[in-house]
Design brief:
Creatine Amidinohydrolase; binds magnesium ion
Length: about 240
């Protein structure tokens, strides 16, 4: 799983370097698809429940599951969430980043990205044997809500292994001490989706793209994390 995680990380960092004003989200898809093949991996998303691409690219008020398109031109001040999954020898890696486009990001939007990433890191720091899924959700929620942002409820993290989505669900909200206890050897994808406004989302007519109901900006960061004997190791770093 670490091998699959490294592929995902390498692809995401390559895609990040291609995010600039004037690029389309399909440009990012092409870069990712070629690199996944070069690295001897297979894309995890393409064909999954009929999803057409190797990346999800979700711009501004799009939360997750945006479909790369030649018509979606990135412009200065946008943000784009890039989610990537890869398979090696039957095992999966899954991670996401949200990247600012250009240099003139609005300060509130920059703060949304910082807080979302910080909520993921705080959640990872809570992962150890005996900790609970509620500890993870409470960690994310605490960081996010302290900054006046909101956690999306309609999508959650997940177990991951020889399938991309396995039990248990890993919500980004909850109560410390509640829920399933973590044990060494479990691997989960922790993936806070954070809206600048209200938590509500809806899915567009394409059947995939989830957007914030109030049109506010949304950010998404994700890592695949293994529970070890003493804590956690991030497989997509
Ligand atoms: Mg993902
Ligand atoms: Mg995931």
């Amino acid at each position: 799983m670490r091998r699959a995680g490294r592929v995902v990380r390498e692809v995401l960092e390559l895609v990040r370097s291609h995010v600039k004003p004037g690029a389309t989200t399909l440009d990012l898809e092409k870069v990712a698809e070629a690199r996944i093949a070069e690295l001897g991996a297979r894309p995890a998303f393409k064909g999954y429940h009929g999803f057409p691409c190797v990346l999800c690219t979700s711009v501004n008020s799009e939360v997750v599951h945006g479909i790369p398109s030649p018509k979606r031109v990135l412009k200065e001040g946008d943000i784009v969430s890039v989610d990537c999954g890869a398979i090696i020898d039957g095992f999966f890696g899954d991670a996401a980043i949200t990247v600012p486009v250009g240099e003139k990001i609005h300060p509130d939007t920059a703060r949304l990205l910082r807080v979302t990433e910080a909520s993921l890191q705080t959640a990872i720091a809570a992962v150890k044997p005996g900790a609970t899924l509620g500890d993870i959700g409470a960690a994310v929620q605490g960081v996010v809500e302290a900054e006046g942002f909101s956690v999306v409820r309609d999508f959650v993290g997940h177990g991951i292994g020889s399938h991309m989505h396995e039990d248990p669900q890993v919500p980004n909200f909850g109560e410390a001490g509640r829920g399933m206890k973590l044990r060494p050897g479990m691997v989960i994808a922790i993936e806070p989706m954070v809206n600048a406004g209200k938590p509500d989302v809806r899915v567009l007519k394409d059947g995939w793209t989830a957007v914030t109901d109030d049109g506010s900006m949304s950010a998404h960061f994700e890592h695949t994390v293994a529970v070890t004997a003493t804590g956690a190791t991030v497989l997509t770093e």
